[in-house]
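Folding follows sequence. Below is one example:
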Amino acid sequence: MLLLGLLGSVAGPGWHPQPLEHTVVPETPDTSIGSDAGTTAVGTYPVTRTVVTVPVEDGVTVQATIAEPVGAPEPRPAVLFMHGAGTATHEGFADTTEALASAGVVTMVPDKRADTYTTRDRDYVGMAADYLDSFTVLRTWPGVDPGRVGIYGESEGAMSAPVAAADNPDVAFVALVSAPVLPIRAQGALAADSYLREVGVPGRLLRAIPRLIGGAFPGGGFDYFDFDVRPYQQRLHQPVLVVYGTGDASMPIVQGPQLIVADLAEAGNEQITLRYYDGANHGIRVDGDLVPTFPRDLARWVLGLPATADAPPRVAGAEPVQAFRADPVDRPRWYASGDMIVVSALTGCGLVVLSGLLALAGRLPRLVRRRPRSLPRPLGRWVGALCLATTATLVLFIAYLLAITDLALNYRTDSLLVQGGWILVQGVGILAVGLLVLTLEGAWRQARGRGAAPVGALPWAVLGTAVTGSVILLVFAAYWGVFPAVI
């Protein structure tokens, strides 16, 4: 147990997130956009929607929904929406675009291009280029003022929005909503830490964050995890609206805006407006409903430009809280990264299964009433119990991770599941270690011939594959923190 605990402690990167020493203090809790600009309120105009087809490259087309106000004065400002990871079709953002259009702003939501977007591979620069094809259509739409068309990027869309707007005078303004700002690997580690702490998992389990997120992934890909949007943000000359919900534990809601301010300063751009909505989640929603002041503020900011670009208050809303910094994630060593993780787990499981098959083969002679070739008691039972216990440790650990992930993503807590499940996983792991010791001690006695009849090569093969596979699985479990830490 001590050896496995020590191995788990020193085998990979630790996890020691640093407290965030600075915060953002809103000037007022009222999120209303200032300035003397006269703007139309949300709900003023009826809204009509049109679905159009937009050609992108390589003969690919996407559909897009254009929402526009009926009877609003022309020419009108317009906004192109860029999807986050959770939305993909032209039917998205329905409540936000309805509110904006009813205030006099034309909106366009194109489909996310599906043929170049997968879990493993994403190209934010290429996505920006595809969105700009839709942007060109929107700028030439009847009734739209081509000099007042901007971009709205939400979540992952805020990675492509600065790319599309950088050094692009056609983009009149940029709204970044729930923006990661940092590379997704760093932001994802912060999100995992926040979610797991909220659920109340044992501190030792947090050590798995850099070991999972920091390394290469099996099969390769996921290069977009290291994409850095900040060089593009440093080339933004347009007015920028930055929006977060204070209930969003997945984003750097303090650190992100600080970095955006610093990036815009590189471009000599001070036209930034920051809003925090009290208790709102990643989609700026509370209990599933869009915060009503959010589209109100967004519509006034768009309609009031350029007067609203730097109007006070620059920072308003609820006070945000970000406990830890999102920093670059340490990388696991070569033996615990990418394909090696899968190879080690499959090797251990394969050897355990092979030992079972060999044991069954050794009992086949009983079918013809001959003496089976098997390990003597109690060694044979210990080997069988060892295989079951190590397999159960791995299965229970995976099931535990899935259960707490479900709790975290649904913002729920369950102390019995979190604490009791962890005790169960560790208890079965400790049982497996005990059975390993009993098996090795029994094998030592058998090899020295103390009171036991000699056995053939097949039973020894059963023993060897079972012990080797179990040791691999126990080391695997130790790496992920199943056994008590020594240091």
Summary: The mean pLDDT is 92. The longest strand covers residues 144-154. The chain has two domains: 2-11+332-479, 47-183+227-317.
